[in-house]
Specification:
The protein is an alpha/beta fold. It contains 6 helices and 4 strands. It has a 4-stranded parallel beta sheet. The protein is globular and about 45 Å long. The relative contact order is 0.16.
């Protein structure tokens, strides 16, 4: 399985161009990841991995977006990211700094998610919320990504999708 950084260092720029050309393409995804949160002014929202910072446009006024994206290929087209050219882990925030952390459709590129989950727990405030939205294993979307996308994309696709192992990793990291 190719690493997140290895994959998006190569194709992040193309992905970013597509997202900027069609900014509404993932509107439903951005809305659903924010739905569990009651966002108030001054609330600090960590976005990991942040891609080109697309979530920022969907936050209500007064919310503070703090994106972390390890691949500079996303940020080369003007997206704001707190830590350009910084590895995914450790996360760049101090302990208990964020009210919420969201992760949308990026961690299926991580074989072992335990390190990320531990870091999310570290940077969240005690009453903070982690909202994770990604593809579940064995679903039609998983088969499409590893099948059609994998066969017709220059970088291929091999996902480590969410499942029982993910729940075990979340539980093990608290």
């Amino acid at each position: 399985m190719q690493s997140y950084s290895g994959l998006f260092d190569r194709c992040g720029s193309s992905y970013d161009i597509a997202m900027r050309r069609y900014p509404q393409a993932r509107l439903a995804e951005f809305r659903q990841i924010l739905e569990p949160l009651t966002i108030t002014p001054g609330m600090r929202i960590g976005d990991v991995p942040a891609g080109g910072g697309y979530l920022q446009a969907h936050l209500p006024p007064g919310a503070i977006w703090e994106g972390h994206e390890p691949c500079a290929s996303f940020t080369s087209h003007g997206a704001v990211s707190t830590t350009e050219n910084h590895p995914l882990l450790p996360l760049p925030w101090p302990d208990h700094a964020l009210d919420a952390v969201v992760s949308l459709a990026g961690i299926h590129h991580l074989e072992n998610k335990t390190g990320l989950f531990s870091e999310v727990g570290r940077v969240l405030k005690p009453a903070g919320i982690f909202v994770l939205s990604d593809v579940a294993e064995g679903t039609p979307v998983a088969r499409f990504l590893d099948g059609f996308v994998g066969d017709h994309n220059s970088t291929g696709h091999e996902g480590s999708f969410l499942g029982e192992r993910t729940l075990e990793e979340l539980h093990a990291t608290g």
